[in-house]
Amino acid sequence: MPGRGAGRIGSLGMVNDKTRQEMKCSVAVLILTLNEEQNLPDCLGTLKWCDDIVVLDSGSSDRTEEIALGAGVRFCHHRFDDYASQRNAALDGVEFKYPWVFMVDADERVPPELAAEVLKATAEAEEDVDLFRMRRKDMFMGRWIKNSSGYPTWFGRLIRVGKVSFHREVHEDCVPQGREEHLVEHLIHYPFSKGLNDWFARHNHYSTVEAELRLRESQEPVKWRDVLSDDPARRRRAYKRCAFMLPFRPFLMFMALFCIRLGMFEGKPGLVYCLFRAIYEYMIDLKIKEFERRTKGQPT
Questions:
Q1: Sign of dihedral through CA atoms 18, 21, 25, 27?
Q2: CA 181 to chain CA centroid, nearest Å
Q3: Tens-digit pLDDT profile for residues 64-92
Q4: Nearest to 147 by CA among 52, 41, 58, 260
């Protein structure tokens, strides 16, 4: 749940014709892509209420560009350095039609209730509000993996152009100049839409970047007061810093998700997802040890 003082915007239900028309006057959509021919059509299918959709691609070799142009959206290229840089490049280099940008990943879907809430939030936002955070539902084996995924995580996705910047190379942080508020409705996320091989390939890359970040962050003191912060994003970062100090961390992650967060009641999908999370954390720990040995000139 959001911290004290965080705003909550109610849902408007289904998006009717009047809502679609009003939505077109306030919000643009940005989608980052790399070989997303499988996900992009369904993603765009949930964004028909928006008349300014920008796909920022980082070198796709499949039909991503063809699909985007066929759908009538703007298609741009930018070399990928990291996720935060890519988002910042879009905000700095793309001329959006509207003052608000809704950032959606290709493997995410925007249900009508969320689209309506986005309209209401931007239409009623006070001048000092620059960011809206939202949660998403991770889907696996045909069901929402609520407990095993560690839900909720609040993502900064609806931003006022020129007032927000992104930091951190992976699992990036969104930092607004002004206030932030929280939406009620959810994005729908399909992290396994391109298969297990793709998921492991992506998380192999993520774990490398995370290990490098952890080594750099370990040189900085932990801000213990952030553990009790009203800001859910700051609180989550503090929890992660503390978690990396624990022994047997991957096993503890599994037990926390499977037993404490009750992933055990989500059947086989919950068990498998908890195992995947533990494997990912173990990959990070192994790479941290590898980087430390390399720094000392020791064999890996």
A1: positive
A2: 16
A3: 999 999 999 999 999 999 899 999 999 99
A4: 260
* Cβ-count burial 21-42 (b if 16+ within 10 Å, e if not): ebbbebbbbbbbbebbbbbbee
All residues at 6 or more sequence positions from 174 whose CB lies less than 8 Å from its CB, including other chains = 131, 133, 155, 156, 157, 159, 164, 165, 166, 233
Q: Which residues are CB-contacts of 34 (< 8 A; sequence separation ≥ 6)?
A: 57, 58, 59, 60, 64, 80
Query: Which domains are assigned to the chain?
Result: 8-189 (3.90.550.10), 196-295 (no CATH)
CB-count exposure of residue 53 (10 Å: 0-12, 13-18, 19+): buried
With beta carbons less than 8 A apart as the criterion, state whether 92 and 166 touch. no
Tokens 């000392």, located at residue: 296
Question: Which residues make beta-bridge pairs with 100?
Answer: 27, 160
Distance CA 249, CA 241 (A): 12
C-alpha distances out from residue 172 to 82, 83, 85, 115, 156, Å: 9, 7, 9, 23, 9
Rounded to two decimals, the pTM is 0.83
Q: DSSP code of 260?
A: I
